[in-house]
Amino acid sequence: MAHLLDDDPRIIEFDVRTDEMLVNMGPQHPSTHGVLRLVLRTDGEVVSEVEPHIGYLHRCAEKIGENITHRQFIPYTDRMDYLAAMNMNLGWALAVEKLMKYQVSEKARHLRVLIAEMNRIASHLVGMGAYGLDLGTFSPFLYAFREREKILDLFEEACGARLTYSYITVGGLTADLPTGWLQRCEAFLEQFEPIIQEYHALLTTNAIFVKRTASIGVMSRELAIDYGCSGPVLRGSGVDQDMRRDGEAIYTAMYEGYAFEVAVMKDGHYPRDHDYPAVPADAVLGDCWHRFFVRMLEVVQSMDLVRQAIDRYSACKGPLGDPVKLTEKMPAGDAYLETECPKGQMGFYIVSDGSAIPWRARARSSSFSNLAVTHELCRGCLIADVPAIVGSLDVVMGEIDR
Amino acid sequence: MRGPGFLEQLEAAVPGAVVGKNLEALDPWIEVAPERIADVCAWLARSSPVRFDSLQCITAVDWCEPDPKKAAKVAWQPHTEMVYHLWSTPARASLVVKAKLPRWQADVPGQPPEIPTVCGVWRGANWHEREVYDLSGVWFTGHPDLRRILCPEDWEGFPLRKDYEMPLDYHGIRGR
User: Fold this and answer.
1) Nearest C-alpha in A relative to B165
2) Which residue, among A41, A48, A126, A137, has the nearest Cα to A81 in the 3D structure?
């Protein structure tokens, strides 16, 4: 038996009787990204079953949406994914605009791209930093938050809020950028660009980090699609899908003319592979490392998109245009739109009876679908891998519970 | 987007299931008989030329006007509408499947209407159906683990129904 014990910690000594045990992780566990409770059925170190319990942050956003007008609902979308509130605002605003067949001005379009991509960087920085925390390293979190703080400062200048912006709204944006904002944004990008290499040194290529994430929580392509996973979780499994390119016309039109390559592994390599650290030998497509790496690539991709948006936005003459009236009536009917948020595809479904107040406001949360797959990924893993797997999904509870 | 003859193929595979359609709508939809939903979805996900391999969202819309004055003016009969948003990863196309249910099973208030589960088609449907059951009160027959997901397990009523009344007290917490 001795040689077996050396190889695999999961092989239990034959004369030791073990019992199954139920262990509660959460709802206040720091590595659960909010108030998520996981009930683990374990036998020693091995997890045989994981059951997530959600709903601790349920605030009836959908019910509230049935009682207020479409524009009044914007602040509630902020509180869904509070780490990427701009993207949430955008998702709802576009869904209402789809129903109204409303088209925003060219200037507003580029400003939306600019702001949404900046928020994507901020969200991925949190995802990256918090993932480090999950795995027991504190410093990346501080480095990530230092840079995120600068993005929040920029957002504060633009709209007055640091987290719940309500900046993008139905029919455009609430205000134009203040003077000098674009220069400050460019200065930030200039300063931020070299720091990404630091992140790669701290996490991506870190030997301990690679050991903790490579080949852990492998999700096959089929499993990801079957569960309706999206965003970096789906792309981390090698599915080439990004709503910014593949989505509906009203959304892809926003990115028309922008050059970007979807961050996904194709034919064994990522786009512009030479700029980035090589994929570690232990990593297999669909594991925690790949999900993390896709996020890191998207940070660079978003920086590129922000630069393009700055150019296009500054070239636009004329006014930004006013948002629609607070009580503007929507045509009767229904519309569903998914947008590519940092966490995945966020869908909003509006049913209207012809008034300004939606008959039904539905939010399809990407984190909800991404988290639903946890029990499949955690079956048979070690207890210490559970935070690594849940962290790699980068879920935010505000969006799951709504 | 869904190819020519799509509806004819669906009709041949699952005869009599489609009871309505609007392929010109903002989001093209087909309406199916509720008891056939699992068959239709299985065909759409596995056998149709455009394989809708991903379920994005399940929504229940409660068509009910609690105010009798306004209820006299509406054009529809009270019912619960199920809306399934499907997505095809290979074809990058979407489809909406709808089904009409009564508001209550056999018109007994408090008795949720029933529809077959689609968990056997997409595993991701599990949580979505639990959420619909929890908030809108639709019973998915054949679901492996149908219980509340967002609300506490001892919660009463279905909050997203239009005639839902907020409880005045929950374990000593004042409702309003």
Assistant:
1) A63
2) A126
What angle, 0 to 180 degrees and rounded to 10, lies between the N-to-C axes of helices A106-134 and A385-393? 180
Q: Could you read off the pLDDT of A336-352 as tens digits, one per residue?
A: 999 999 999 999 999 99
Q: In a mutagenesis test of the B interface, which of A362, A373, A375 is the best target, namely the one with the most B β-carbons within 10 Å?
A: A362
Say how far residue A240 (Cα) sits from the centre of its chain: 17
- Find chain A residues with C-beta within 8 A of B165's C-beta: none
| Residue from A225, A346, A348, A353 whose CB has the most chain B CBs within 10 Å, to mutate | A225
For B28-46, b/e burial (b = at least 16 CB within 10 A) is bbbbbbbebbbbbbbbbbe
Across the interface, of B96, B123, B159, the residue whose CB is closest to A336 is B96
| B131 interaction partners in chain A (CB closer than 8 Å) | 368
Q: What is the ipTM of this complex?
A: 0.89
List of long-range contacts for A163-167, beta carbons under 8 Å, 24+ apart:
A163/A78, A163/A82, A163/A85, A164/A75, A164/A78, A164/A79, A164/A82, A164/A85, A165/A78, A165/A85, A165/A86, A165/A89, A166/A74, A166/A75, A166/A78, A166/A85, A166/A89, A167/A86, A167/A89, A167/A115
Q: Give pTM, 2 decimals.
A: 0.88
